[in-house]
């Protein structure tokens, strides 16, 4: 656990990092969480898009979490969604949400999905990556693992377990 804490300290708040690592460790030790994804930061360049936040997990076979993407481009505001699916393959994850608050494009009740990659915790590692948020058909399964293009994050952190 100390090794994970050391890696995590680079780039994000120490307190947030400790909370995430301790929560993840305690849940994993209990054998309840099979997959966990945490993402936070600015979108692609930190200017045209605002930010995103994802916390998703599979606990005792049940998927839960929240997925929010806020933007500043083209008059759109973004959305907040409840996670309905999560698929993990190696260091990558696909997260799907049902929109509970949206705008003119990302409307309430629509389904949305993104792809993320955890490329390490050190500032010397390749930057973590995230795709844009894509509208998908209702109940589109994350297990399909669409090849959404990934973009380097300028700031923020992805954790995939």
List keywords for this structure.
161 residues, mainly beta, ten-stranded antiparallel sheet
Helix-strand pattern: HHEEEEEEEEEE
How much β-strand is present in the residues? 35-45%
What summary fits the major beta sheet? 10 strands, antiparallel
Poorly predicted segments:
1-12, 26-30
Query: Helicity, in percent?
Result: 10-25%
CA-CA gap between termini: 14 Å
Radius of gyration: 15 Å
- Backbone shape: globular
Structural class: mainly beta
Number of helices: 2
Arithmetic mean pLDDT? 81
Task: Explain what this protein looks like in three dimensions.
This protein is mostly beta strands and 161 residues long. Helix content is 14%, strand content 44%. The chain is built from 2 helices and 10 strands. The chain has helices at 2-8, 14-29, and strands at 33-42, 49-59, 62-71, 78-89, 92-101, 111-117, 129-130, 134-136, 151-152, 157-160. Strands 1, 2, 3, 4, 5, 6, 7, 8, 9 and 10 form a 10-stranded antiparallel beta sheet that branches. A hairpin with a 2-residue loop joins strand 2 (49-59) and strand 3 (62-71). The longest helix is centred in the first third of the chain and has 16 residues, at 14-29. It is globular and about 40 Å long. The model is unreliable at 1-12 and 26-30 (pLDDT under 50).
């Amino acid at each position: 656990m100390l090794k994970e804490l050391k890696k995590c300290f680079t780039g994000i708040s120490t307190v947030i990092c400790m909370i995430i690592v301790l929560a993840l460790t305690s849940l994993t030790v209990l054998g309840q969480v099979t997959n966990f994804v945490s993402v936070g930061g600015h979108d692609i360049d930190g200017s045209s898009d605002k930010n995103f936040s994802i916390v998703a997990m599979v606990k005792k076979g049940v998927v839960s979490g929240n997925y929010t993407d806020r933007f500043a481009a083209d008059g759109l505001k973004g959305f907040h969604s409840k996670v309905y699916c999560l698929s993990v393959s190696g260091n990558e994850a696909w997260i799907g949400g049902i929109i509970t608050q949206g705008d003119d494009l990302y409307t309430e009740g629509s389904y949305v999905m993104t792809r993320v990659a955890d490329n390490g915790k050190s500032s010397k590692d390749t930057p973590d990556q995230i795709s844009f948020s894509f509208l998908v058909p209702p109940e589109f399964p994350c297990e399909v693992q669409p090849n959404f293009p990934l973009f380097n994050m300028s700031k923020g952190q992805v954790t995939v377990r």
